[in-house]
Write the structure tokens for this entry.
Amino acid sequence: MNVAFSDFDAIKKSLTQGELNCADLTQMYLDYIRQGAQVNAFISVFDEQAPGRAMDIDRKRRHHKAGPLAGMVLAIKDNLVMDQGRTTCGSNILQSFTSPYDATVIQKLTDADAIFIGKTNMDEFGMGSSNENSAFGLVRNPHDGQYVPGGSSGGSAAAVAAGFCTAALGSDTGGSIRQPAAFCGLVGLKPTYGRVSRYGLVAFASSLDQIGPLTRSAGDCAELLQVISGHDIRDATSMDEPVPEYASFLRRDVTGLRVGVPGEYFDEGVDAGVQKSVKAAIGFLQQSGAQVVDISLPHTPYAIAAYYIIANAEASANLARFDGARYGFRAKAPSDLEALYVKSRSQGFGAEVKRRIMLGTFVLSSGYYEAYFGKAQKVRTLIRQDFARAFEKADLLLAPTCPTTAFRIGEKLDDPLTMYLSDIFTVSVNLAGLPALSVPCGKDQQGLPIGLQLIGNHLQEGGCLRVADFLQRHYPPSAPSEYIPSAAGKNDKEAL
Amino acid sequence: MPYESVIGLEVHIQLSTATKIFCNCPAQFGAQPNTQVCPVCMGLPGALPVLNEKVIEFAISLALASNCRINPCFLFARKNYFYPDLPKGYQISQFDLPFCEQGHIGFETAAGLFTVAIRRIHMEEDAGKSVHAESYVAADETLIDLNRCGVPLLELVTEPDFRQPEQASAFLMYLRQLVRYLGICDGNMEEGSLRCDANVSLRPRGSAELGTKTELKNMNSFRHVERAIAFEIERQQNLLRRHEPVMQETLLWDAAHQVAQPMRSKEYSHDYRYFPEPDLTPGRVTPGQIDKVRARMPELPLAKKTRYIETLDLPAYDAAVLTDDIRIAEYFETLCRHVEDKKLASNWVMGEVLRALKEQDVEIDQLKMTPESLAGLLQQVEKGAISHTLAKKVFAESLATGTDPVVLMQQQGLSQVTDESALTDIIQDVLKQHPAELADYRAGKEKLFGFFVGQVMRASGGRADAKKVSELLRTRLSK
């Protein structure tokens, strides 16, 4: 097996047995990045810093002083600030911006002896579902270069899928980790809002953003989550709750687990192939001892509208600081202050970002606030309540991550609304602040990966990891069985 | 038609916390530009605000002092506008659910006691400064100093209860005294620690409806506040008399020309698009927190002044002078614990102590004379053990040397000579030394009496009790 496609567990074994060292591993990834340049997964590659760092970690290993992530080579989404290299957020307006400080997660990963290989491409400021909205060019899906890798953490997902790194960090505001994980055949986790410090994550929508891992296995996801989780005094929204031992959720069975299946997530808008695969996985879990429960999330149809109002409203304020006055791109020869703002922002931001700033500004405007932002906040509460009720009956919810597999490059570029609708199964989770994980559950006829989404209750990342790990170890079985929902969502009677 | 003016104030109170409202940078005034900054107050990408708990404490104390209802849960909001010295493109302020609401503050005006209703008090961060007028700034440049970004402010909004400019300025003066009493703001209007905007409108006397209001800005002294409001009332009056409408607009007070000029409409016609700040969770204030602050609240200035008049029996003037600054009042009160004669204590604080502070240009806690030491000296005065004149000399010397005044008295044998036999001896000597004057006196030149008193005082080194000397001398000369 090619070590570039190994999970961290396997790498650690090779390191321990002396078959591999961090320096060689890092060099191999750098070679792959060079050879796979057409994927365009990276905005910055740390080809100067990473080899030295890898040698340092090898030295530490020899003295048995290495941290838990020694040997994990990470790609970091370019909206996480580091005091090395640039932080661009995929935008022209920050094309040469360098941060004087490290994000909290970067500090934690550094302390755990992870090696950083580069900063990954992304939809500008996280705004997109295909990674086509980047000032640094689109990213190609390593499974098929004609297809998008998903977004906005498309570069992170592509980097892992293409064997450019062991794992990656992304950020998820409305599905930006889970959807690219699904499209690229990876495990992608959006933790509970507040589980991971946002300090140093360039904000898109502050009440929705969360940093999380993109990995090959649930085990790697658990190891990364273990390091990056926890309270941070620099983030007032981070939760002061103990961090469980996530590895303890691995290698377990699913006996007695109550798995809820929301009927609203299996409507006619979902591809037949996706439906089939997800249901097959649910059937397998049931066969393996899980108890499958039909549940309903009745406010799902309003989630997209509420999400795009709240996210864009917050973004309109969060992106106001990029004005050309203090750092970042500044337009040439503005005649006065207003021209400085207008020109810098018009030239510095891409079309999608400008569209969203305008939408967000509109929904907060005097006279429109109640009708849009106020209403969206109410919908958000109702969506939270939907989930709260569902978790009275189920320990975990199961659904497709996306209605389709990866789409073709350019396919939805001219139709923002269709693009927005592809987030339909991921945004509710952000509105409710819940943890959710996408795990591969098969491929469609083109051979493109399909993602199964596991949604946990608050702080129940462990439950998501448990099921994902179980599926990765035991599924697909030799004879897949299929779960057939009983008028799912129409009533709450326990299925089958 | 007679008009009534309707005036409300919005006062920004810069809090004297050690650090800023959302980060750990020092909040002090006067540092080199852009040296008291960090990623948070510079609004760098990825940085997040965390509320300084001290600001809540300060806000509680002003809420209590203004009799406001403290909201058990308060929210921060983003106020969105573009300006180069506002590095995030929004100010973290409060909109819905401010810190506290519905209070009132009583204070004195020239015409008597006045109570103004307080609409709300909310917390917010200050913006930076655009620097144009310094020697190091070129004519076509504007530089930005972000030191002030994130310095905590409380914004207090009154109801439009004032009818005269004098009431507004009297309130502002009282508020300045109040925040200094509470120790939450240094009250320096010129440095901008206390900033005031006024809303002014006119309506026909007796009408309950409010007229169109204008907002006055840029008044950086009490006098400017009063003058600007008076100017604006007159301007609106002239408009209304000519049947011209008052435009709702913002005017800047131009102190040099004593006029209020309208700002360009572009500069203030903002839609601030307030919405809840997602980076900060809703704040909570517990009864325990409030009680803790309440327990440490000082007696407020008006109550203190009233008590000085009613309980200590001091003249209103004394009470006003003594309570102007809480540290002076506290000095005076410590003094009073040891001195029976409150008027004596008051005279000394208003006289010698305040003069010394002025001469030495120091604050009272830096004065080399504790109230306890001064009390020792005044006790000697009360006993008649030292004359006022000598006591003042001792006070001055004690200030200069730092030696306790009573110790100084003893070292120099300065306690008053009241012993009759000792005084009689001195008188005897003086009369012997001045036979010619004695003869003149006896011949009817009675104004020489003063000469003899002076000679006795001098012979005693100033220590003789002048009253006693007169008595004894009169007896002796009448023989």
